[in-house]
Each structure stands twice: as C-alpha cells, then as structure tokens.
Fold:
Amino acid sequence: MQTSGIVRLKTLLPSLGMAVALTLPSAVSAAPGSFDLDLKDLKKPAATVSKPHPRRVEKRKTKTGSAHHKPTRKKTPATHPAAPRLVTLDGATACILARQFLEALTEPVPVEAALQGINMPSAIIAARNQGITVLLACGLHPAEAYTFKRLLKTDGVQLLNLTGDEPPTQVIQTAAREAGLSYRQVQGTPLSYELVDAQGGQVRLTVAGATTGGKQ
Structure:
C-alpha cells in the first residue's frame, strides 16, 4: 500500500510543478502593477494648506498701519535775512579813510606782530580777515614800498601803501582787495558799497561827502 501511494505522489509532482509555474508569472506580473500604484500614490501632492483670504490680510494690514500715526510736521516760519549793518566813513584823507575801513570790517592785529621785527615808522594799522593780514602804511617812496612789500609777503602780510591823494573809490576798493573782502558798489550817491565783514555779516558802507566820481 505504501508503495502505491509513493507512486501516485511521483505522478502528481510534475502536474503540481506545472501548475505552480503557470501561476508564478501572473503573480510576478501583478507585483509591478501594484508597485506602480504605490508610486503614483506617493507622487500625489500633499493636502493643500489653506491660505488666509486675501481680504483678511488686507484688513490686517490696514489695522496695523492705522495703529501707527505719522507725526505731523510743523511748518517752520520763513526766516528773513538780517538787515545789513550800516557803516558811515568820513575820512578826511585817503590814509584816514583806509584806516577807518579796516577798523570797521576786519579784526585788529598789533602792528609789531605784523612787522615781524622790520622797522617801518610809516606803518599805521594792521588788520586780519580770513587768514590774510594787511599792514597799512602812508607816504612810503615807491622803491621803499616795493622792498617792504617783498619782505612782508614772505611772512604772509600784505602791504597797503597810500600816497595820500587817492580818491575814495580807489581807497575802498584797494583796501577791500588787499584784505580779501568781496564788495559790490551801489549805484547812486553818496558813494556806497555792500560788503561782508570778517565775521560774515552783511555791511552797507557809505562814504560821507563822496560820490562815485571822487571826493567832494
């Protein structure tokens, strides 16, 4: 009996093998299909996150902006330029007029400091404006004036030498140039100028008894 059972099992084995072989391809071929489905499932986008409504954001921004109030700027009143300082000179001679001019518009400097040891009895006044030092002298001979001018220039001093008979227009303009002062002559009489002094202030300067053509 056992021998017949073994014989039957041997006869059944080939048929079982064929059945398994027929079923395996379908199982293997089914696997990629299920794998593809899994990949497709993985490739699906994640659940979309709900964004706040644009209108709500605008409302929030509006509320936030309204919380900060910009400070109101006060209008500053328009500033008017200061009135010029009025200066009247009445020099009887060219040298006196030049001295009055330098005293009114520049800063005084000791004559000895400007001379730097040079002996010059004819020196009258020394003055400074914006780093420029002017030494006023009267009556120097042209040759002496030339020599003193070269000596003083090495020390940064400008020599202003007047003979005494120069007209007021020449005196004012020459003294202003030597002192580095800008000026503008005002038309009309009496003789007047607009200048800026050593402190930066506006000056209206008038020479009493003088006109644009000379001294009366």
